[in-house]
Amino acid sequence: MTDALHVPVLLAPILARAEGATRVVDGTLGHGGHAAAFLAAGAEVLGIDRDPDAIATARARLGDVRMHYVNAPYASPEAVAAVRAFHPDFLLLDLGVSSRQLDDERRGFTFRPGAPLDMRMGPDAPTAAEWLASVDEAELKQVLREYGDEPKAGRMAAEIVRRRETSDLVTSDDLVNAIRASLGPRSGPGDFARIFQAVRIAVNEELTGLEEVLPLFREAVGPGGTLAVISYHSGEDRLVKGAFRLWSAGCTCPPGLPQCICGQVPLGRSVPRKAVIADDAETRANSRARSARLRFFRNSDASDQSPTRAG
To answer: Which CATH number is 126-203 given?
Structure first.
């Protein structure tokens, strides 16, 4: 196997923050691009992925006794238990779909003509066709609006429901035609990409799993440990940014009290405060990096647990 299988996004800043880490979790292993770099830096690595094909490819590619595997969604009880038992000092989540999955037409992540409406990151989820056949119109409207930033979400949800009453939506063409009927003849690839992304996020429950697991993984990396998250969708990044901001907050007592009575202390801090983005050279070499936003949260050391006054 070669590194062409998976070009790891934002690898340089990740390795800089992971310097000195000895036990690293790659919670979205894919085909092992980031994991290979962690191994080369001398770390023991736990790789998690819900896609059995990705696990098999990574095993064949990496072939290192310091590499351990869990074939499950990163937010599953099995994966969370494995992470806690591993006692990592650095944990990475590279969200979204891998380039290898996108390139495999059988996986149905893109709107290439004739592709099946699958979109599953692993066998634990329903297919997109199954989800579209059963989701109610109100939920579909919400998904299209929140995950696809679609201003005409109500019209599109109604059109999809109308069409499925007479014929199942089973291929990319079926969904593309519903989008065109909703948005008009000027709709194009950008619109299709947004809607397919929205359906994919819903099918795989990506934001739900992320919201549940972030505080668990922050705790798992322990005092002085670092949690790193790469997001590609505005909803993902808002969720990560909000969690990191909450954890960075100190005392919430009203100003004027002589001493803190809430007892809340910062759990750590974002380092740096703003998201890291790819430079021009990386985006030219890897188009997937263009929409990537990388955020780090470093837990406080065990000794740094005194309340800080607000205001």
So the answer is: 1.10.150.170
